Amino acid sequence: MCYNASYLEKKKSKLAERYKNALPPNWKSNIEEFEVPTYYFVSGFEHPKLPIIKHDGIFLYEWGLIPNWAKDASFQHNTLNAVGETVFEKPSFKSAIGSQRCILPVSGFFEWRQLNNKKYPYYIKIEGQEIFSLACVYDTWVDKSTGEVKNTFSIITTPANELMEKIHNVKKRMPLILSQNDEKTWLDPQLSRQSITDLIKTYTETDLVAIPISMEANNAKANRNKAVILERVDYPELQLFD
After folding, report:
1. How far apart are CA 49 and CA 59, in angstroms?
2. What residues form DSSP beta bridges with 104?
3. Which one, of 39, 34, 52, lies nearest residue 139 by Cα?
4. Selection from 82, 81, 46 nearest residue 62 by Cα
5. Of 239, 202, 216, 238, nearest to 110 (Cα)?
6. Rounded to whole angstroms, how far apart are CA atoms 51 and 13?
7. Percent of the chain with pLDDT over 70
8. Which of the residues 52, 53, 210, 236 has an alpha carbon 20 to 30 A from that of 186?
9. Cα radius of gyration (the chain)
10. All residues at 6 or more sequence positions from 128 whose CB lies less than 8 Å from its CB, including other chains
11. Facing residues of 78 across strands?
12. Is residue 219 within 8 Å of residue 4, measured between CB atoms?
């Protein structure tokens, strides 16, 4: 799955440059220039607002999709991810996957390897890329009692590739990573169901890097949003099983 990520790019202008080939030449955002806090580590369970790329611009959306038909926001904790194999069938996502697809830019994400009753945290990134793309779906929900509007998203997941099977060795899942060549296609609201299905596939490129990090990442009550959390920590016991 993917419940924790790292996002280190603050300025929308930098994102616009990175995604200029996926956005229309004359796109105009409906929000002013923004800066996002530096997230060395951010948990989806905190429902942070993060920049997402849609077909028509860059927007701040909250992690944890609330479908437009929901009576309340109570199940938002359960929609941080959308399983790629069932995304067309699940009530929470089946409407959004058809035309409401977006990209979450990340610097990396976190996953845990279970071994001898211990959980070892890893930071996963793509070699040579400061930002890469996770495929998502989005929706807009209005609280009928207050009028509050929530724009939200979920990350799509797939079966793990060989590297991620070794790390996420219980559930064996990973986020749907898009190649740069597929970004514009994924954002197209007119894309056919078959074309969408073809893009929901395990990332098999060999440029993923998995870095073991401090056990401090296991403590949800600690301040994990600090640069040191991304530093490599070598565990001799892990090498015995590599």
Report:
1. 9
2. 134
3. 52
4. 46
5. 216
6. 12
7. 97
8. 210
9. 18
10. 207
11. none
12. no
User: What are the per-10-residue average pLDDT scores of the chain (242 residues)?
Assistant: 92 88 79 78 96 94 96 91 98 97 98 94 96 98 94 98 94 97 97 98 95 96 96 88 62
For residue 39, how many other CB atoms are within 10 A of its CB? 20
| Nearest CA among 119, 126, 125 for reference residue 216 | 119
Distance between CA 208 and CA 176 in Å, rounded? 13
Dmax of the chain from CA atoms? Answer: 57
75: amino acid identity, one letter: F
Strand-by-strand arrangement of the 39-43 sheet:
39-43, 4-7, 108-115, 118-126, 208-212
Tens of pLDDT, residues 156-215: 999 999 999 999 999 999 999 999 999 999 999 999 999 999 999 999 999 999 999 999
Question: What are phi and psi for residue 239, nearest 5 degrees?
Answer: -65, -25
